[in-house]
Amino acid sequence: MTLPPPHVMQAMEISAPGGPEVLKPVQVTVPVPGHGQILIRVAYAGVNRPDALQRAGLYAPPPTASPLPGLEAAGHVAAVGPGVTRWQVGDAVCALLPGGGYAEYAICPEDHALPVPEGMALREAACLPETCFTVWSNVVLRGGLKAGERFLVHGGSSGIGTTAIQLARALGARVFATAGSDDKCKACLDLGAERAINYRSEDFVALMKAEGGANLILDMVGGSYLPRNVKALADDGRLVQIAFLQGPKVELNFAEVMTRRLTITGSTLRPQSDLAKARYARDLAEQVWPLIAKGALRPVMDSEFPLTEAPAAHARMESSGHIGKIVLKVA
């Protein structure tokens, strides 16, 4: 017998903009799923850079989203709203959330949830949505990666990077990655990168030029990397920007972009429409979940923290010492 969800739940809220210490435990009302929505009893929640940006007051949630942080989770369906047809109470799911993952229960549109891959633990499944949605939409759809192309991903040992390396390799691309230590470079090589570049001691521009230039670059660093990325691209190459850890402003000579027919684009996931995210979820179910089933793609796990230790999880992520994903154990 499945019990109905309670009225109150434990969560971690952002008490004020600031560092990891502003994440505080709180008791809040359990959300009620609306039309086309499901309520998930969260077992694990993924920890991501946008959570830290929101905590710092730099990334406001959409007006209709929960103010609680947390953009992905895995667990079991606890209730369904009117019009839901894909899921039943008790189904094991992982989901892209508009917010609210740092809590015992979270809601999302039913089309933003995916089945937990067979044989995969909920701990690992919680690491899939944010990275898979981001990498698929930016590397495959926006970036147009093709088999045989040279693909460079910065931050190769991050959650996004480890997913991008594996997916690009599965699609037949030649994969190159940058990382900040020898251990991180080894992790990139173990995942299928042809070459891992320690950016503290090597010049990725020179190395990529020696290979003929990158056909596609996925970057979350920004700042001084932007003009260097342009130089590292092959003619007709594409640069996809998904974050700006070094800042969004830089001086760039666009003459090279024009004469070499380069494309600079980018996106953020959270502000996109529910319809766009539903399309990505369908693509993942059709194209990426089969890769997971045959072992060609797997989450790389760094560490696990209890929900109430979310500040420590954020400190771990912001130290940049992690390799792969960090999760919060909720239940």
TrEMBL record:
InterPro entries: ADH-like_C (IPR013149), ADH-like_N (IPR013154), ER (IPR020843), GroES-like_sf (IPR011032), NAD(P)-bd_dom_sf (IPR036291), Quinone_OxRdtase_PIG3 (IPR014189). The lineage of its organism: Bacteria, Pseudomonadati, Pseudomonadota, Alphaproteobacteria, Rhodobacterales. Coiled coil: none annotated. Keywords: NADP, Oxidoreductase. Gene3D superfamilies: Medium-chain alcohol dehydrogenases, catalytic domain, NAD(P)-binding Rossmann-like Domain. This is NAD(P)H-quinone oxidoreductase. Residues 18-328 form the Enoyl reductase (ER) domain. It comes from Gemmobacter denitrificans. The keyword Ribosomal protein does not apply.
